[in-house]
Amino acid sequence: MNLRTSAAVIAGKAAAAASRLLGRGGGTAIAGLIAERIDPGIVRGLAAQAGQGAIAVTGTNGKTTTSLMLNRIAHEAGLSPLHNRSGSNLMRGVAAMLVEDASIAGEIPEAARRFAILEVDEATLPEIARSVPLRAAVFTNLFRDQLDRYGEVDTVARSWQRALGAAPEEMTCVLNADDPAVAHLGRNAHGRVLYYGVDDVAAGGPAVEHASDFRTCLQCGAELRYDVTFYGHIGHWRCDACGNQRPRPDISVTQVTLGEDTTALAISFPDGGLKVALPLSGLYNAYNALAAAAGAFALGLPRDAIVRALEGFEAAFGRQERFSIEGRDVRVLLGKNPTGLNQVLHSIAAQPGRKRILFFLNDGIADGRDVSWIWDADYETIQPRTEWTLAAGTRAEELALRLKYAGFGDDVPVERDTSAAVRRALDATPAGGTVYVVPTYTAMLEVRDLLAQKAGARRFWERA
Amino acid sequence: MSGSRASVLTLRVAHLYPRLMNIYGDRGNIMCLRRRCEVRGIGFELTELGPGDRLDPQAYDLIFAGGAQDREQRGVVDDLLRIKADAIREAVESDVVLLAVCGAYQLFGRFYRESSGAELPGAGIFDLYTEHPGERVPRCIGNVVVEWQSPSGPQTVVGFENHGGRTFLGEGVRPFARVRSGNGNNGRDGTEGAIYRNAYGTYIHGSLLPKNPALADHLIANALRRRFGEITLSPIDDRAEQRAHAAALRLRP
To answer: A410, B240: Cβ pair inside 8 Å?
Structure first.
């Protein structure tokens, strides 16, 4: 027993309990902050106890869903996951999760069966890779997101490259072959590299959508060519100038059939294949499932566990959740950067009927204080299918102006109060009807809490 | 619209490097120019010029360039200096309107001095230079409010800035605006942006033009004046624009 670790765990647990008692949310951040203050090595000390090792999942979009899928796969495989699951993906969030799980002696119970799944913020990945001996790291994608917080996208890419350069040979890198910035990391890895990608070109289109970030070759700087793009800059890319190209994936989706609420996938591995009916819509969720399957393969988890976990999957908190309130179907889809939002709008557009949409735009630190990204998102695509819309959030007026440009009318209504906005959305929806709520991150935390109360669901930190 | 009297008036816009310099919602500026012309029955012609494309200095009324990441910006510099800079300078000297935001604003100065001391030459459209104080000095990031002396009097301009380089103006330009809150050119002398003839450079994005309709109209009217004489733009429904502007005035820096 390490006295310092033990003291840190006790103080962290006390802080979390106090925060919960005061109703200040899950108390996740404060517990981690306090524990780290007392024992700066707490993450390493506790995570290293997990007998089955640790895997990290990072990237701009999809890391919460992908890590939750990995959690379910590990569970189905008979492991006991340690997982920072409520989107608290900074160092302090990981610390808080470990503190909550540890005994007051600073020990992780049943350590031999434990397997740590760490959802990690893009900028936190280097620190996690230094602190925790990782068996694998899964990189989903790299898009422009919160430029005011992270600096340029290239800054993140370089920090990942340095982190991989310093990582041990034992760590397997699981990389999205279809994202040129992520695939490029393969050059910096010392250990085994596994690429995953979508081979089914029928799922893609020829054109690069507007909100595209990595248009130039990371090796020589020339403009990249695409044989097919799936979304954003994700696709089958090549550089005619230097010959750099999308690596051939080790794990790939050979067939994808997108349905209204489900997605049928055929995934091929180096040693066989599987078919899975994923209960989520949208090509981006096919990528999340593929990334999770590739991570599971890297760790040697059994194929049947992958299928069972994905087929029984429930959407991650706030990512694609449904609530039944006053006889209305309320669907929450997080939209926090241009590419993610475009994907969400595509997935809403695929549903039948005219839509009612409540958009939230917040400019908190966790959202990115710079909201200029909304001008790069394609609200235009959903406008012809929309019959009612409301702009809400701390930057509701800016959002209303963007929606005006997208053809939603000269005077899009604005509502600054979250509760009033939800009320107006419910009133605008007939009984039995559907209303979509598309919030940024901090707005999602607020609105989800409100919806859960109305629907009688438990608050998120109470989720099992 | 062709054939109708109104469509004789046409704004011809060149957008420089739209695929490489576009990181801060720069598309919103083009959308704004287009909308404010089309609503008034003014024609709008957009030409996108990428690497390798030559710019005809007589062919456009307004030239726009936006922000870029360092990697893209390095790729652009060479093409800009080799193929386009002389033509842009010629256009600006004949009073074509130029709007350069953030990265393009820096590129169109005399030089950019990296923290190592190395100097990268710029296009020299604006008499100004930019120096990077080093990675340990915080970037200028946040909401910004400035006061611009428009032809009809003082006018606030609102938006967001995110730049590491600090820009210092020479004798040959005047500041675009005075900083009310935020950093502006360098966080020291209270200036924001630069004006030379009809060329405007600024760090403000957000996007810049949609919620600053007075500035957008000023640029459009100036751009049309060269070919069509004095233009009075008819008032249009700016309720959503004014609300977004007013809300941005209240944001913390």
So the answer is: yes
pTM here is 0.77
Q: Is B208 helix (H, G, I), strand (E, B) or coil?
A: coil
Q: How far is A143 from chain B (nearest CA, A)?
A: 11
Is B102 tagged catalytic?
yes
List the structure tokens of A56: 């990290």
Neighbours of B223 (CB within 10 A): 26
- A300 burial class (0-12, 13-18, 19+ CB within 10 angstroms)? exposed
Going from the C-alpha of B182 to that of each of A180, A366, B162, B174, the distances in angstroms are 36, 21, 10, 19
Give domain limits for chain A. 50-81+113-311, 321-462
Task: Please name the helix (run of DSSP H) or strand (run of DSSP E) that holds residue A83, with its range, or none.
Answer: strand A80-83
Q: Report yes or no: B180 and B145 within 8 Å, Cβ to Cβ.
A: yes
Annotated domain spans of chain B: 6-249
Q: What ipTM was estimated for this complex?
A: 0.95
| B167 at interface of A, judged by CB pairs closer than 8 A | no
- Length reported for chain B: 253
Contact A398 B211 (CB under 8 A): yes
Residues B210, A215: C-beta atoms closer than 8 Å: no
CATH of B6-249, one of 3.40.50.880, 3.30.70.100, 3.40.50.620, 2.40.70.10: 3.40.50.880
CB-nearest to A398 from B72, B239, B244 is B244
Active site residue B205: yes
Can you give the pLDDT of all 464 residues of chain A as single tens digits? 678 888 888 888 888 888 777 765 555 678 888 888 889 988 888 988 998 999 999 999 899 899 999 999 999 999 999 998 666 888 888 888 888 889 888 898 888 889 999 999 888 899 999 999 999 999 999 987 766 666 667 788 889 999 998 888 899 999 999 999 999 999 888 899 999 999 998 888 665 555 456 678 888 888 888 888 888 889 999 999 999 999 999 999 999 998 777 899 999 999 999 999 998 888 899 999 999 999 999 999 999 999 999 998 876 666 678 899 999 999 999 898 888 898 899 889 888 899 999 999 999 888 889 999 999 999 999 999 999 999 999 999 999 999 999 999 998 999 999 999 999 999 999 999 999 999 998 999 899 889 989 988 644 443 33
Nearest to A154 among B22, B51, B69 (CB): B69
For A152, the closest of B69, B74, B247 (CB atoms) is: B69
In the CATH hierarchy, which fold is given to the domain comprising A321-462?
A: Protein-Tyrosine Phosphatase; Chain A (3.90.190)
Structure tokens at B192: 């924001």
Q: Under CATH, which number does the domain A50-81+113-311 receive? A: 3.40.1190.10
Whether chain A has a CB inside 8 Å of the CB on B162: the answer is: yes
| Residues A200, B231: Cα–Cα separation, whole Å | 55
